[in-house]
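Sample A.
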Amino acid sequence: MEKQYEKPAYLKLKKRDGIFLAVVLVVAVAGLLWFCLGYSRPGSLVEATVDGEVLGAYPLAEARELALPGEEAITNRLVIAQGEAWMQWADCPDQICVEHRPISREGEEIVCLPNRIVVRVTGGDGPKTDAVAR
């Protein structure tokens, strides 16, 4: 007579474990769908700030190149074209902002920490939430 292999107790999935895994999976999928489908919308403006001071807001629909000043000189070049914005050039050593993909959706940002520059897409179709004030 052959002896059947039985899984060790720590490998057996209990009913509670299965329910817990299913709940975690549902929450993760719902969060991903909310983030991808409902969170971000196409933006209409690009706002550039240096050290917390707003330099200006520029329409995504109008092509332009902007020289963004740092503390002492021009440190970054921002390009806005075809409904997207990206950092074309920067004098910082790490070049993370230059390697960042183009941004076009509300809430997306490109940050150059060494030069204290933040470029953010704003101005979508309206407020994300409805509010009634009396």
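Sample B.
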Amino acid sequence: MRFDACADWYDVHAAPQRAFAARVGAFIQVAPGEEVLELGAGTGALSRWLCEHGARLRATDASPRMVALGRAAVPQAEWFLLDAFTGRLPQATLQVSSGLLQWADDPAAVLGRWKASLAPGGRMVHAMPCDPCLVEWRALVAESPLIWRDEAGWRAVFAASGLRVIRARLWMEPHQFPSALELVRCLHRSGVTGRPRLGPGRLRAAIRRYDALHQRAGQVVSTWAWLALEAVPV
């Protein structure tokens, strides 16, 4: 993905991700003074919520530019550079992320590594977009940088990692954009699209088709879905 290159524009083009971060923060139920390790913190949308609700937060990201922007936006947290998929995690009693785990090539293996860094009695809360997120666009374009899983699929991944899901919450809501082109631009400029997967002709055709199918009153609708799972080691 292109998060480091797009860090300076991420907040402008990631309104759905920021909206879900607040919901994930409320779902986590952090206690005042609780020590929290956040993975893939980005520019700090979830970090800010956690700090404002009393967490003692260590926030991490693999992107140097994201860490710099996050540190400036949420100075209450301790920020440091860490690739959560390959680096060694510090021990934590509460480990959280939002919008990170879906990028793992083998999320079950990643969760197994993350589980090993939990302190005795610790818990983890990880949230991610899930099927049917962006279903309108995916119906027109089969290529995707992600493997899309529904709630049952993600629960199976957690179970395969030796984790027991004790709470779950799924949010679904529509987000509006001026056009399908603006939707695609927001995805691209927030860094989530990776290298180009469509030729220009196919991309233009998909955009025209999306507008024809989903434009109402000068806006197009895009479905977003976000799943949060709280889990503990079995």
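B remarks: The chain has a mean pLDDT of 92. DSSP finds nine helices and eight strands in the chain.
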